[in-house]
Amino acid sequence: MASIAAAASSLMNGERAVVLLFVLRVLSSLPPCLLSHGLALCSLAAAAFHVEIRLENSSSLLRFKTRPGASSGILLAAVTLPTVLISKLIQLSRAVSPHQVSYEDFEYLKMLYWAASVSSFGVLVFLYSALQHSPDKAYPPSSNIQSTSWLMSCCIGLYAALCCVSLAIMSNFGLQLAFNLFWVVCHGFAAVKLIQHLLNTFPSCASVGEALLLSAGIVLYSGDMLACTFTKINERFVSFNLVSPWYSTNRSERSIIIQSVLLALLVFPLIFKLLLRLWERPSTMTSDARTLSEVRRSLLFFGSLACMLIVIAPSWMQFAQDFQSHPFLWVFSFVFGEPVKRLSLCVYWVCLIYASVIKFYNISKNSKVERILLRKYYHLMAVSMFSPALILQPEFLDLAFGAALAVFLVIEIIRVWRIWPLGKLVHQFMNAFTDHRDSDLLIVSHFSLLLGCALPMWLSFGYNDRPLAPFAGILSLGIGDTMASLVGHKYGVLRWSKTGKKTIEGTAAGITSVLVACSALLPLLASTGYVMTQHWFSLLLAVIASGLLEAYTAQLDNAFIPLVFYSLLCL
Questions:
Q1: 3-state helix, strand, coil in the chain (%, to 5)
Q2: Where are the beta strands (DSSP E) in 325-401?
Q3: What single string gives the DSSP state of each residue in 421-468?
Q4: Helices and strands (DSSP H and E) totals, the chain
Q5: N or C, where is the chain less crowded by C-beta within 10 Å?
C-alpha cells in the first residue's frame, strides 16, 4: 500500500490535482442530456494525463524547443477549452426548457464543443504517436505506464464512439452526419499542423500546453467563421442542406466584424511572406540599396495590410452578415449612437494608457523593481479601464476589445518583421515591458492579459444567468493575481513547494481579495438591473480553485486562470 501511495503521489502534482478538481466540479453539474459530452471529457482528461506523464519522462520531443522553466502543461491545456464550452452548455441547458434559449443555439454550442474537443484530442494523438515511435523509451520507475499503453487505445476508442454517436443524434444521419464528422476531424488535423508550425517557428516561446491551447483556440475560431461562410454559400448556391443549420444562428454585427478582422490579421503574415518571395530577389546589396529595399518592403507591407483591412475583410463581413452599409461605416454609426458615453470612455482610456505607459516605461528603464511586479500594475490598470465599461457599456467594450487586439496584432507583426521605420522602435519600446515568459521572437504577455479579460465577456454575450461570469478575467487577473504577487513578494514566507516561488500568504491574499471584490460587485450589479443568481458556495469553490491554479501552475496564468474561473462561475 505504501508503494502504491508513493507511486500515486509521484504522478499527482499540485497542478494536476487542481485540474482534477476543476473537471470533477464541472462533471458534477452535468444534466442528463450532456452525459456523452461529460464521458468524452473524461476520456480526454485520461488521455491527456497519460500523455503528459509519458512526455515528461521522455526526450523524444526535444526537436520542439519549449519555453524554459515551464512544465508541459498538457493536461491543463487539453481540458481547458472543452470544459469552458461544456460549462457554457450546462448554463444554456438551464434556459432551454423555459425557452429563454433556442434549441438551435444549444445545438450550435454542442458542435463547437466537439470541434474544440477533437482539436485537443487530435494533438494528444499526435504527441502520443511521436512518443510511441521515438527511440527513447524512458518511463517513470514508480509506475507501470509501459504496460498500460492500452489506456490510450481505450480512451481513443471510447472517445471516437461517443463523438460519432453524439453527432449522429444531432445530425439525423445522412449527408449532414458525414459533413459534421469530416468537419470536426478537420479541426483535429488543423490543430496538429498549427501546433507543429508554432513550436517550430517560435522556439522557446511557449510550453507544449500553451501552444496546444493557442492552436485549439485559433482553429476553433477560424472554423466557426468558415462554417458561417459555408452556410451562406449553401443557402445561396446549393439546393440541399449540407452544412449544419446551427451555424446560421443569429450573430451580432460586432462579432462578425471582430472575427473577420482578427482572422484576416492572423492570415496576413502568411500572405505577406508569399508577396515578399515574389517581390524580392536574393542578391548582394550595398547599404543604400538595402535601405531602398527596406522602404519598398515597408510600402509593400502597409499597402497589402490596407488592402486586407479595407477591401478583403469587409467583403468577407458583408458576405457573412447582411450589413446595410459598409462595416466600417456601421462601426462609426455604432460609436456615435451614444456619443457622450462612448467618446467619454475613449478619452478616459487614452488618458489612462498614456499616463501609465509613460510613467512605467521610465520606471522600467531606471528602476531596480522586479519586472514581474512592475507588470502587475498593468493588471490593476486593466481593472480601472474595463470594469466601468463592462458595467455601463458592455457592447461598446466588446468592440473595443476587438479593436485593441487588432492593434496589438499589427504592432507585433511590425515588430517581428522589423518593418521600416517603426520595427526597431517598437521592439525597443516593447522590450521594456517583457519578463521571463517573453522572448525576442514573440512577446505574448500583453496579448494574454487582454484576451484573459476579453474572453469571459465575449463568452457571456447571449444568455447569461451568472452576473459575475463576464468579470472572470478582470477579477482573477486584475485583482487576484495582482494581490497574490504583491503580497507574496513582500510578506510571503511559506512556499507551496521547495522549488517554486509561489507562497501560501500570496495565494491567501489573492483568494481573499477576489472574494471581497465579488462582495462589493454583486450589490453594484444588482442596482443596475442584473438578476442575482450567483450561488456563494459555487463562487467560493471557483475562487479557491483559480487561486490554487495560480499557485501551482507553471503555465502562462493569464491564459488559463480566467477560463477556469469563468467555467466554474457558469455552474
A1: 75, 0, 25
A2: none
A3: TTHHHHHHHHHTT--TT--SS---HHHHHHHHHHHHHHHHSSS---TT
A4: 22, 0
A5: N
pLDDT for residue 1 is more than 80? no
Q: Tell me, what amino acid is at 537? A: F
**CA nearest 75: which of 91, 62, 56?**
56
The pLDDT confidence band at residue 13, using thresholds 50, 70 and 90, is: confident
Which whole number is the average pLDDT over 70-98? 90
Separation between Cα atoms, residue 247 and residue 110, nearest integer Å = 11
CA–CA separation, 59 and 63 (whole Å): 9
Q: Whole-angstrom Cα distance, residue 472 to residue 567?
A: 9
Look up residue 205 and give its amino acid: C
CB 451 within 8 A of CB 557: no
Q: List, for residues 324-335, the tens digit of each pLDDT value.
A: 888 889 999 999
Looking at the whole model, is its pTM more than 0.70?
yes
- Any residues with CB less than 8 A from the CB of 571 and at least 6 apart, and which? 25, 26, 29, 87, 90, 91, 538, 542
559: amino acid identity, one letter: A
Packed helices 394-417 and 423-431: angle between N→C axes, nearest 10 degrees = 110
Q: Cβ atoms within 10 A of the Cβ of 234, count?
A: 19
- Find out whether 64 and 208 touch, Cβ atoms under 8 Å: yes
Greater model confidence, 525 or 268: 268
pLDDT, greater one: 286 or 547: 547
Written as nine digits, the cell of 404 is 485593441
For 503, the 3-state DSSP assignment is strand
Cα angle at 120 between 151 and 145, to 5 degrees?
25
pLDDT of the residue at 389: 92
Residue type at 405 in one-letter notation = L
Residue 29 to residue 381: CA distance in whole angstroms: 35
CA-derived radius of gyration, the chain: 24
Complete DSSP assignment for 183-226: HHHHHHHHHHHHHHHHHHHSTTSS-HHHHHHHHHHHHHHHHHHH
pLDDT tens, position by position, 185-228: 999 999 999 999 999 888 888 889 999 999 999 999 999 998 88
Q: 10 Å Cβ neighbour count for 220?
A: 22
Q: How confident is the model at residue 294 (pLDDT cuts 50, 70, 90)?
A: confident
Percentage above 90 pLDDT, the chain: 44
Long-range contact set of residues 162-168: C-beta below 8 Å, sequence gap at least 24? 162/36, 162/37, 162/39, 162/40, 162/43, 163/40, 163/114, 163/117, 163/118, 165/36, 166/36, 166/37, 166/40, 166/110, 166/114, 167/114
Q: Which amino acid is at 342?
A: R
Please report the pLDDT score of residue 287 as a whole number. 57
Q: What is the chain's mean pLDDT, rounded?
A: 84
Nine cell digits for residue 324: 446595410
Task: Please give the C-alpha separations between residue 533 and each of 49, 64, 89, 422, 468, in angstroms, as whole numbers.
Answer: 35, 46, 17, 49, 10
Instruction: Determine the pLDDT at residue 142.
Output: 43
